[in-house]
Predict the structure.
Amino acid sequence: MGILAATVSGQVSRRAFLISAALAGGSFVIGPRFAPPAEAAEPFLPNPFIRIPPSGPIELVIASVEMGQGVYSGIATLIAEELEVTLDQVRAVAAPADPSRYAHPMLGDQVTGGSVTIRGFWEPMRRAGAAARIMLVAAAARDWGVPAASCRAEAGEVIHAGSGRRIAYGALAGKAAQETVPEQIPLKPAAEFKLIGKKAPRIDTPAKVNGTAKFGLDAHPPGVKFAAIAVCPTFGGTLKAVEDGEALRVKGVRQVVRLSDAVAVVADHTGAARKGLAALRITWDPGANGGLTSAELERRIDAAMTDGDALVAHRSGNVAEAEAAGPGGVEAVYRMPILAHTTMEPMNCTVHVRPDGCDVWVGTQVAGRARQAAAQVTGLPVEKVVVHNHLLGGGFGRRLDHDGIIMATRVAQQVDGPVQVVWSREEDIRRDSYRYLNRSRVVVRLGPDGMPVSWRHRVVGPAIMARFLPILFKDGIDLDITNGAESHYDIPNKLVEYVRHEAPEGMLTGNWRGVGPTRNAPPVEGGIDEAAHLAGRDPVEYRRQLLGKAPRLRGVLDLAAERAGWGTPLGADRGRGVAVAADFGSFAALVAQVHVDTDGSLKVERMVCAIDCGQAVNPDILRQQVESGIIYGLSAAFYGRLTIADGAIVEGNFDDSPVLRIHECPAIEVHIVPSAEPPGGVGELGTPGVAPALMNAIFAATGKRLRDLPIDPSPLRRA
């Protein structure tokens, strides 16, 4: 799917040719293969990721999905670097739903998320390209009767240095298929990189510009009908009754589908479906959550902070002893709201259920799970379900869940032929997989020199990983929601406690861009900032002293402070704030500069970010991702809050759940630390530091400390 709306799985299985491949421990392991007779018209398929046809572009099968983060270009660059081809000689093909071949080596599943794509595939994809190149060179050398060492690969050709003979990869396809897969696959040293680390246009851009790129909404199989859906607004509620007479009289409406908790109107086109949905008279049974309010949920999580069972997620030193010896310090509670994802492309899924099979057209971050979900709903064997994975119009963690695929499949079971189910923006926001309420209480004790001697942090929130990725749920502790809660600072005594507190029954909670660090960065970076102020120290210098054992984090802090002009005068009503973040194998520091008028109006003037992500595969994409993460974080810091009344989300569109507008966007600078370390993740690292950097900057400008999100400007009024 994506740029090339086809999979290669059928071709591979018919030829019984695939090399058995496994991704283990970050290495590309090649097993036995079954080579067909050499045929000039046959493509060369050295492994599950590369298809070299006799003519035309080389197809690279990308195991991770493209959702705007540039993964098609990133993975293609890794393969092309070792395959010795240019990026304009390749095109990306979405991998089929097949975790046995395309599981991410770090996650053990076919998942795109967690900023681990490049990290996990850094070596395996380069080895895939190198193995294919070695086999192509060996085939040419054998054909010419010369040593393979006397040949080299360059720009999709094999060249014999002595005679100047050259042959294109496509012409070698049949012969290369007969070569033995190399046991040793050496990789280039960084000094020889031609593509990695260099700026290059994204390979998915042309199709997105000319309109040929295929997103989930573009899936229109023959005979497709279109469905608009209404889900019971109350979490855990059900459908009681529906009068559909007026809806069925709408021109183009074909049927009304009733489910236990939803109603869908199926029509010839979306307009008719929407009009028919509006004509329904629906009666819902709100269930046990019918009277639920935001105030009640806030009361519950506050009670959990005080009375909930706390598990120790991290312990070093003796915090109780340090607290008893040093009573002075910081005690603060940070409150974070319910957040939606609001992806650009509304949630959608097209499904065709037949007695003997099921096809699903969707943009998803979890293709394998999508296949399993459709199989479970239909009762079909999983091998009878085909997932056609498309480009995603934004993921941000929302498309890590497959609840929408389940709902669309349930609708499709009652429809003759394929049906595309599209969520309105209101349904999207009111039936998201939310980042749920979060509470953090930090207690920092300072020694006689003003430096922290103990750090106590209690985190209260749900256990997403218990459901989503159990390998990150250990001994009752969600290792993601507690990630970074102990702080990155060198403090001799630390204690992190976790209180599991789930959302009400029927409310789906999930991953949100930046995951655990977005919950922990505000209390950690806010708490350290408060400690620095209490000690009468400059916030940057205070952090520098505490980061002596974290040189890469200290390095980005120094770079960001330098480029932001830290310490230089700003004038009245202005302030700078700083925050650091270390996760996803990368390190970032962010300096926010704000202006707070006397009436409390707040303007972010500048955001300066320094990032050390190891080897940058494509610096342009890296900057785009960090800028995107900062803007996403600004939207949440200013506007991100969903409220509940009568058991349902109140907000439903961008009028009451806004995102950052272009005139509100500050100047953003991203400075990359040159590095030869293995790559870290960048897609999420720009987001966690935004809110604490802003809150710290507001304090610098006004002397007023904010601890709740989103930012409420009313306490900042000074006139």
Notes: The chain is about 30% helix and 25% strand. The two ends are 58 Å apart (CA to CA). Confidence is low (pLDDT under 50) at residues 1-40.
